[in-house]
């Protein structure tokens, strides 16, 4: 049984829906899943692509695999933290469309964080999450 997760953009806060996320996510009791930061590392050891858009594709694939391993789907995600090296409007654009597609318009609460570096110099993006199943 999937717990009820309510995602809100209350009228007392700026409407985040057009930007692809929710201001608030409320989860009913259930098992909590904590997804470690996913980066553009491939299971086959392929080189990390240099471009952010290409890394986003790999990161979202890894993120979907982590959710699946936990018995969860994007619908179960209540919170995302996205770390992007040298975050700028172009980077936001490269990220938000594929992220919105993954969540089908029901995005969780989200925080985007611009950073100077991640765990390895080739990584440009890292996504961590909390889900409830």
UniProtKB/TrEMBL annotation:
<dbReference type="InterPro" id="IPR006175">
    <property type="entry name" value="YjgF/YER057c/UK114"/>
</dbReference>
<dbReference type="GO" id="GO:0019239">
    <property type="term" value="F:deaminase activity"/>
</dbReference>
<comment type="similarity">
    <text>Belongs to the RutC family.</text>
</comment>
<protein>
    <submittedName>
        <fullName>RidA family protein</fullName>
    </submittedName>
</protein>
<dbReference type="Pfam" id="PF01042">
    <property type="entry name" value="Ribonuc_L-PSP"/>
</dbReference>
<dbReference type="InterPro" id="IPR035959">
    <property type="entry name" value="RutC-like_sf"/>
</dbReference>
<dbReference type="GO" id="GO:0005829">
    <property type="term" value="C:cytosol"/>
</dbReference>
